[in-house]
Design brief:
It is a single chain. With 388 residues, the protein is α/β, with parallel strands linked by helices. It has 2 domains: 4-12 and 259-387, Aspartate Aminotransferase, domain 1, CATH 3.90.1150.10; 16-257, Aspartate Aminotransferase, domain 2 (3-Layer(aba) Sandwich). 43% of the residues lie in helices and 13% in strands. It is built from 16 helices and 12 strands. It has helices at 16-22, 24-27, 38-58, 63-66, 73-88, 103-113, 132-138, 161-171, 231-234, 242-257, 259-280, 307-316, 336-340, 345-348, 362-381, 384-387; strands at 4-5, 67-70, 94-98, 118-122, 143-147, 174-178, 197-201, 212-216, 284-286, 297-302, 319-320, 351-355. Helix 6 links the parallel strand 3 (94-98) and strand 4. Helix 11 (259-280) packs parallel to helix 15 (362-381). It is globular.
Length: 388
Amino acid sequence: MKTVYMDNAATTALNKDVLSAMLPYFTEIYGNPSSLHTPGQEAHKAVANARQQVGRALNAADPEREIIFTGCGTESDNMVLLGIAERYQKKGKHIITTAVEHHAVLYTCQRLEKKGFEVTYLPVDEYGRVTAKQVEEAIRPDTILVSVMFGNNEVGTIMPIAEIGRICREKGVFFHTDAVQAVGHVHIDVQAMNIDMLSLSAHKFHGPKGVGALYVRKGIVIPALLTGGAQEHNKRAGTENVPGVVGLGKAIEMACNSIDETSARMTKLRDKLIKRIPELIPEVKLNGHPTERLPGNVNFSIKYIEGESILLMLDLNGIAASSGSACTSGSLDPSHVLLAMGLPHEVAHGSLRLTLGDDTTEEDVDYVLDVLPRIVERLRNMSPLWNR
């Protein structure tokens, strides 16, 4: 049976060249990068090189000081929100975010609310977008941070990051973006976009799991989330995951070197799915912005059937997909993103997310277009809602 992987928003396959770059740091160059001896300094150089690779990908002004390696995008988000709240609470206790953020941001904001902070959750339009004007109108004298994701992990909608960044810079408010889904897939320039802090994770662009990074503009002080050592310029204690860091650096460099070509190819395949699925299946709704969306993201609500049933039957046919974020795949609740976009519970329950990667082919897309309509027809024939 053919196997088609269309859950790249959850995680991507490790690129073979990235793996080759990582392997020596498991068995040959295995020194602790904090050690002064030669093996340790070789590891230190590898970490420093990866820091430059990440900095170049984001156009950071001073990668050596502005790039902090973490364990994942979630840790990076937590480091920003908890760190800014701790460091700048004397200035104010107001934070602005959106109703469609990843739970790494939403749950951390809820945690801060319990500590006396006030959080404004901006509503989104039918496409899952907020505007720069909304952000501007929400900023108050006691606002210390605005956190708006770059591209949505469920529906793929891209936010107007550069406009929001400009507003925040003019108002003197720190601006953070969770760019976990966007890095390596769209062009990002932290200087041109007035981004103060940015979170990313290697396994979303064909790097290894268990390693992420945080960009923090020089001059912004964030307390360490983990204490106990002087690693990462006293910002993140603990011996660095050298093979993972090397893999992150290699993966982000490769992704950004081919970003135009890869994005164009994935956008073409994405748009084929977006065009053909409604032609083949009645009563479906595209979720997310039709054009301002990540190159590899397709999200539909398929009415009158459950998304979980679709996923199970797709899996039986060799197709790996999802109905939303992998972090909430065990939940029976409908997507908070789709509900925030105004979808009724019963429609939100029927969502299907197909996310493409570097290895996705047109043959893969055609196979999905062949299998999916038959699955939907079979499930709808068993649905009392459809028959009614």
